[in-house]
Amino acid sequence: MNQSHSRRIPRHLSLAAVVVTASLQTAHATGFRLPDQDAVATARGEAFVATADNASAVFYNPAGITQVEGQQFRVGIYGLSLGVRYRSPAGLSYDNRKDLHAVPQIFYTLTPKESRFSYGIGVYSPMGLSSEWPQDTGFRTIGTRASLTELTIHPVAAWKVAEGLSIAAGPTFNLAEVDLRQGFLTPAAGIGDEYRFKGRGWDPGFNAGILYAPAKEWQFGLTYKSAPTVRLTGSSTLTAPGLNTRVDGSSDFVMPQSVAAGVSYRPTPDWNLEVNIDWTDWSRLKTLTVQQSPLPDAVQPLHWRSSFYYEFGATRQLGGGWSVSAGYIFNENSLPDDHYLPQVGDLDRHFLSVGGGWKHGGLSIDLAYQFGYGPDRTVAGSGVNAYGQSADGHYRFLSHALLLSCGWHF
Fold first, then answer.
1. What local confidence, expressed as pLDDT, does residue 21 receive?
2. I need a surface site. Which of 132, 192, 240, 398 has the fewest CB within 10 A?
């Protein structure tokens, strides 16, 4: 343990033990999940589980890679402008300062000629993003900044059991880093006090999928993503005028399991209509325990709830290698008022998307635009901490995103 002003350590660390538990919760909400991993899927409102016909199927439904002959390499970038606005009970408005994000993804698949087996690998970020609020919001001791970076490496193997039926599974190796901050001495801004927890770790998991096509017009997909628990190890740091203290800190970062199911209908070869339902098990996170020597463990009960994505998409082939797509998503919130966290800014959200693609030979280029909107949510009755601060107020969400994906099929 590195320390200065050792006589003050017990008092400040006791305060930090109260607030660090609340801070760590910020990385577990719908606002940090990233389902956007390919421009074709995003343009269709992520309704891709039952289509899954390019290399990004490694993420969306690994059973779909049996549809991709030969080899395909696909790379993309998801650029996001994320805006969350908070209006306090006193009528003051604040904007989240961490509004620009860029998230890359890479996929590769191989189906040997005349083989019923296919193989693939993906490197992507299924959860992430960050938020930062000004110091004078009225909830600085609940949290001022939260950042989550997760990288998943996912090899997969798929088997075409019979014509129209494929299954797949593969391990995931999940690396996560969390950086969380808030004031800890006083609710007043301008003192310069900050509590910071930063930790990283990894844990294995697995994904599996099924793809079934009983007729040429219909295709059904189902995929499951497991819930790894990453043991974060790092440090807790307290800084203030005349104080700079650091102790070892650790916590179990629980990720949610999820299940997505979809049905694709192709009335003609030029049309593909799909509906998906995607369930995320946030309720798996029952309690949060923080080990922080020299303090005893801090245990915080949580009451989050599982939530659904409802996804609808359509693609039209135009001829000459061109296609257009459109989609819609409704995303339920996961945080009840009494356990609300402003770092997440969680609320019901609507997403509209459009996109287009072009193929020539083995080259494919796809671009999608996504607009997200969350109607005002009024939070009342959230927990009041030891400093008399709470997350009560009005929250609004607005986002714009572009996703560019390029592929080479050979």
1. 41
2. 192
